[in-house]
Amino acid sequence: MKALKILSILTLITCFTTQAEAQLLKKLGKAAERAAERTLEKKVEEKTSNETDKAFDTVFNNNKGKKKRKTKKKKKDIISLPQETGNNPVQTGPNETLTELSVYSKFDFVPGDKILMTDDFSLDHMGDFPAKWNTNGTGELVTIDNEKWFKLAGKSTYIPDLPSALPEDYTIEFDMLTVVDKKTSSQAKLEIWLEDNNMFDTPKNMAKVEIPLCLFISVGFIVENKVEGKRVIRNSVEKDIREILLQKNHVSIAVNGKRFRLWVNENKVVDVPRLLTDNISSFKLHPRDVRDGIDKVFINNVKIAKGGVDLRNQLLENGKFSTTGILFNSGSDQIKPESSGVLKQIAEALVQDKDLKLNIIGHTDADGNDNTNLMLSEQRAIAVKNALNSQFNVDNSRLQTEGKGETQPVDKNNTTEGKANNRRVEFVKI
């Protein structure tokens, strides 16, 4: 009996032990399973993390590449504008000046000799609308490479303040900078209007030329006019300026009676003998189809001047003439290339009259030091002499030079227009 009890107890112990071992093994199995799962999860996480890192690296590197390409493209489109040199005379490399003048060797634009309006926006505050202009829309002054530019807005018309109605003969000049989308066929254009009113009224008499700003296709220059409200001329002049549109360009316009001519840099792109009508009194700019945030149009160095007729006849008939059309970099004796038209006419007068000899006299405005201005005027006269010799083969023995500085003003020195008229070069027959 006792033995039977002992056997029963041993059996129970064995069963308990087996169940405990089984439960223990089961628990160990689950723990191992969980450990295996965690190991697998960890490996998956590590792999996922690695793949994610690679993906991020790829995206980052691609973005870096895109940013590089975008920056490179943007840098290509941004133009480095010329820097001001201050009030002190600066000697410049003659080769640079001669190269620029050579490029403009066929440029026959001659600016007017009496400045009616000029504006480089130097007296206006950044972000403001310039004081010498009127508009029915908006616009503001911005800085590009440390230079002020007037940013024009689409659907706006801009009218400069003039002391009187436009004369029969006059010239208009301005620098233009544009940023236009290359990938789409933009309809953007800068319209030049010459009209019979200086407000925003619909004109009965007008002439218009559209400068195309499209980079995708060549659309040409549109010329149009109206006489007493009826269109007489509407045509497209096939000139392609797409290669230079993203650069800083100089626009020159000459009006002589009914004749209208327009140059972009040294190239004449429009010449219509009877585009203008009677009663034209105002000049206006109108950017059309300019898309905000995509297309941008900027202007600077605006100058409107009376005259622009044959300077050779003035020199040969009167024995002298004075011009504001020979331009120099600020505080420098370096001649700007757009001066080539005036220099060419002087050279032609010297070729026509073999006995003609000239005294070249430089004049400045009253800004800055008197002695500095005197020295600068002398240097500029010498620069003109050198240009006539090197570019047009005029013998130096036929040319003399002199500087008067600010001592002989022809206009007031308290306005930008007056100062511009005083900054001149005079040619006197010897």
TrEMBL record:
The keyword Cytoplasm belongs to this UniProt entry's keyword annotation: no
Annotated spans, Disordered: 61-95, 397-422
Subcellular location: Cell outer membrane
Pfam family for this entry, one: OmpA
Segments of skewed composition (Polar residues): 82-95, 410-419
Annotated signal peptide: 1-22
Stretches with biased composition (Basic residues): 64-76
Annotated OmpA-like domain residues: 315-430
InterPro entries per record: Bact_OuterMem_StrucFunc, OMP_bac, OmpA-like, OmpA-like_sf
Keyword line: Cell outer membrane, Membrane, Signal
Principal localisation: membrane
Name assigned to this protein: OmpA family protein
Originating species: Aureibaculum flavum
Taxonomic placement: Bacteria, Pseudomonadati, Bacteroidota, Flavobacteriia, Flavobacteriales
